[in-house]
Amino acid sequence: MAFWDQLKAKTQELNGQLQVKTAQFKNKEFANGSMAMCALIAAADGSIDPSERQKTAALIMSNESLKVFAFEELRQKFDWYCDKLNGDFDFGKVEATATIAKLKSKPEQARAVIQIGIIIGGADGNFDEHEKKAVKEACFAVGINPGEFDL
Q1: For labelling, which of 20, 29, 87, 104 has a CA lying 20 to 30 Å from the CA of 117?
Q2: How many CA atoms lie within 13 A of 116 on its CB side?
Q3: pTM for the complete prediction?
Q4: In the prediction, which pLDDT does 138 show?
């Protein structure tokens, strides 16, 4: 049970840090990167079922750090990435990862997107190996060592 307590505490800490940072990052690239990351987490096991998609959308809507953006815009972008991943997983993954990689020259924003992936992945209390792998790949795409996030 201690592991779950640590995960919950880490998630709360990351969420607190993000609330301060995201107000500074209110731009299209950050919003797109965040939704690409959320879609990758939802599809981490290779597919996105409707309930998983709905659950992730609800998490996006309730996430304090993303409230600087209009929810409808975020939902549309999240749905767009989910549709790409459902249509052709490999191509969708490349496209979502490329969107995240656009933040490579903006390390603070890149870190915030990675943190969002960790928060979304751990929101159900089970940050599984597929989700960790998706976050690690995003780290590599933006040139951040996954060890920085204990991955």
Answers
A1: 87
A2: 35
A3: 0.80
A4: 95
